[in-house]
Structures are given as structure tokens and as C-alpha cells.
């Protein structure tokens, strides 16, 4: 069976072996178009196959016509993005048969741009994604500039891939679908964040675990040299941080200013995560490069009484001085937090921290 364009140029010749292969894929015109898509680069939605009897529709059974004519249609973009972003599957299917471009760009009033493929991904519409995948171009490199009002994100030009959006909303099945379709696990946005950075930031536990198991780099750096563990520490994503450490994340990794995940957890006043990181071996007296801050400096400066008490009990250096020569006690006094000052004035504890019992007690009182 020969398939020719209007010009007469032969696009494909389907021999008996390939014909049997197409029969195995479903034995319909749709299956034939999917095979032709791999050869021509045009998705099945842009293809029209004509026999002497007329147009051959997707659900028609395949037959051994001696020759078919292939017509590639121009695109007709209309309300396609809206249909994709609102999960109107039947309407998407109907529009694709006009056909539509799965990578259509729209300019919303708020500014920015959005591809239809990403519009569906950012909303987690798996059925729409599965429909678009055969015609989507370079899934791993698809970029989005989405207006802030649409999704409530802080940056309207993040340049996220579909996988970033799956990580943002912890859409596990969508992430699995994209990775199986060869989405790039290490694709970076404008801040050089991968999907794993986003998952760690957003406490997306299921997607974090899946991405790591799929081979994502747990030590990958973003623009400020944050690892995914830094991201989870800054956002207080305790479960994600524990998982990352369990699979080998470096608790001593430093960013461009020498901050470790422990510094970020202390600054974020996340006592549970501070306790976990220290028990996991993190250096409780690590010093930042620019301001010479220890985790105890940060806890004292934020007036985090229970965290200060825990760090002191764990043996953190109370007399450590920052770049200005100030100790944690000096910082607590500067904000008139006399409870913290009193803890820092207490005599040194000679015995090691009784970890689990002490930690649990402090966590129970962490809201005091």
C-alpha cells in the first residue's frame, strides 16, 4: 500500500510486515496515522487520508487499499487552550481534528504566555495530556510563562516545564506519564531549578519519591547553589527532607553564601527539621561565609525559644561570633527576647543530648 501526497510524492510504502504490525496496534486508520506521524513529523490530528471512496476516519478499520492520498492540514487555533486547561476532553478531541497545535501560544491579558500542553499539565488533567502527547513537541523543553493571577505563583515568568508543574501540585500520575514520555528530569527553569527542587519546595512527597526513583539528581544545584534538601529545609518540608537524607542527600551541602540546610531550617524556625538534621549528623556549628552565622545565631535572632534550648542542649557554641563580633545572646538581647537570653546564660550541660526523649518534649512545647 502506497501513501502519497497531493504532489504525487510517496510518503510511505506499507509492506505486509508493517501492515500486520499496524493491525496489532488496533487495525484502524488511527493506528496507521500514528505510524505515519513517526515518519512525517505531523501528528495524526493534522493528517487526512483519502481513498477513492472519500475520507478515511480514525475509527474505520484498516484495509489493503492500493494507494491512499495524505493531506496535511493547516492549524486552526481558537479556544484550544481554554479547553485544555478546563479538562474538556471531548472538546479538545474535536478541536484537534481541525486540527490544533498542542504547543499553541496564547497571550493572556495579564501578560505572559502559555502552551496548551502546559495548560493541561499545570492543572493536572491527565486525560488531556494523554490525548496531546502524540502531537506535543519536545516535552522536556516545553516552557511556560504563566500570569500570576492564573495559578497564584509568585513569578509570572518561571519558564517551567510540564514536569515542574506536576511537581508543584504533587500530580504523581501526571509526573509518571511525562517521565515515561521521555520528559527531561534535569530540565531547569529560569532560576535553574529542576522539577525535584520544585517538589522539595512544595512538600510534594509522592512526586519527590518518584523523581528520585526515576533517576533525578538529588544534589543538583539551582542558581544560588541550593540542593533539593536546601529547598525542603527552607520551606519546612519535613517528610521530603527526611526522605532525601535517607537516600543519601548531603546534609553539609553549602549554597553560594555557605548556608547549609540546617541554617535554612533554623531561619525558618522549623524545630522538627533542625532536630532531625542534627541527629542525622549535620554540623550544628556550621558558619555561613558572608555573615559568619551559626544556626544558633539564626534561632536567637528569630526569638525561637525552643529551638535555642534544643541547640544549647545539643552542645551548640554559645560564644560563636558573627561578622560583627556578636554572639547569639547579643542578637537575642537586641530584640529584647529575655527568655532566650536566660537560656543562653544557663550553665553548660556536661552530658550529651538525650535525643529522642528531649526532642519529643521540645516539639510538644514548640508553640509555647
TrEMBL record:
<feature type="repeat" description="ANK">
    <location>
        <begin position="257"/>
        <end position="289"/>
    </location>
</feature>
<feature type="repeat" description="ANK">
    <location>
        <begin position="158"/>
        <end position="190"/>
    </location>
</feature>
<protein>
    <submittedName>
        <fullName>Uncharacterized protein</fullName>
    </submittedName>
</protein>
<keyword id="KW-0677">Repeat</keyword>
<feature type="repeat" description="ANK">
    <location>
        <begin position="291"/>
        <end position="323"/>
    </location>
</feature>
<dbReference type="InterPro" id="IPR002110">
    <property type="entry name" value="Ankyrin_rpt"/>
</dbReference>
<keyword id="KW-0040">ANK repeat</keyword>
<feature type="repeat" description="ANK">
    <location>
        <begin position="224"/>
        <end position="256"/>
    </location>
</feature>
<dbReference type="Pfam" id="PF12796">
    <property type="entry name" value="Ank_2"/>
</dbReference>
<feature type="repeat" description="ANK">
    <location>
        <begin position="191"/>
        <end position="223"/>
    </location>
</feature>
<dbReference type="InterPro" id="IPR036770">
    <property type="entry name" value="Ankyrin_rpt-contain_sf"/>
</dbReference>
Amino acid at each position: 500500500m502506497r501513501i502519497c501526497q497531493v504532489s504525487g510524492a510517496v510518503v510511505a510504502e506499507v509492506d505486509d510486515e508493517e501492515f500486520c504490525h499496524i493491525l496489532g496496534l488496533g487495525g484502524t486508520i488511527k493506528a496507521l496515522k500514528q505510524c505515519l506521524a513517526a515518519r512525517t513529523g505531523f501528528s495524526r490530528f493534522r493528517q487526512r487520508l483519502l481513498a477513492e471512496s472519500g475520507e478515511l476516519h480514525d475509527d474505520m478499520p484498516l484495509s489493503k487499499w492500493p494507494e491512499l492520498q495524505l493531506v496535511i492540514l493547516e492549524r486552526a487555533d481558537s479556544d484550544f487552550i481554554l479547553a485544555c486547561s478546563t479538562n474538556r476532553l471531548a472538546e479538545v478531541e474535536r478541536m484537534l481534528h481541525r486540527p490544533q497545535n498542542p504547543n499553541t501560544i496564547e497571550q493572556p491579558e495579564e501578560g505572559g504566555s502559555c502552551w496548551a500542553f502546559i495548560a493541561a499539565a499545570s492543572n493536572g488533567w491527565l486525560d488531556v495530556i494523554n490525548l496531546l502527547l502524540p502531537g506535543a513537541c519536545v516535552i522536556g523543553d516545553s516552557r511556560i510563562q504563566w500570569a500570576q493571577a492564573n495559578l497564584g505563583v509568585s513569578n509570572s515568568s518561571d519558564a517551567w516545564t510540564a514536569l515542574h508543574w506536576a511537581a508543584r501540585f504533587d500530580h504523581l500520575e501526571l509526573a509518571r506519564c511525562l517521565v515515561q514520555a521521555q520528559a527531561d528530569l534535569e530540565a531547569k527553569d529560569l532560576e535553574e531549578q529542576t522539577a525535584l527542587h520544585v517538589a522539595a519546595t512544595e512538600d510534594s512527597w509522592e512526586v519527590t519519591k518518584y523523581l528520585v526513583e526515576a533517576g533525578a539528581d538529588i544534589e543538583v544545584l539551582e542558581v544560588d547553589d541550593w540542593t533539593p534538601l536546601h529547598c525542603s529545609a527552607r520551606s519546612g518540608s519535613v517528610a521530603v527532607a527526611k526522605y532525601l537524607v535517607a537516600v543519601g542527600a548531603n546534609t553539609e551541602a553549602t549554597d553560594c553564601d555557605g548556608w547549609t540546610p540546617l541554617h535554612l531550617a533554623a531561619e525558618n524556625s522549623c524545630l522538627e527539621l533542625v532536630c532531625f538534621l542534627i541527629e542525622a549528623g549535620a554540623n550544628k556549628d556550621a558558619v555561613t561565609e558572608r555573615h559568619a552565622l551559626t544556626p544558633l545565631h539564626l534561632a536567637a535572632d528569630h526569638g525561637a525559644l525552643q529551638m535555642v534550648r534544643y541547640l544549647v542542649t545539643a552542645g551548640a557554641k554559645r560564644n560563636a561570633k558573627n561578622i560583627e563580633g556578636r554572639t547569639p545572646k547579643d542578637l537575642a538581647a537586641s530584640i529584647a527576647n529575655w527568655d532566650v537570653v536566660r537560656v543562653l546564660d544557663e550553665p553548660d550541660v556536661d552530658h550529651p543530648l538525650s535525643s529522642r526523649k528531649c526532642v519529643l518534649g521540645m516539639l510538644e512545647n514548640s508553640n509555647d
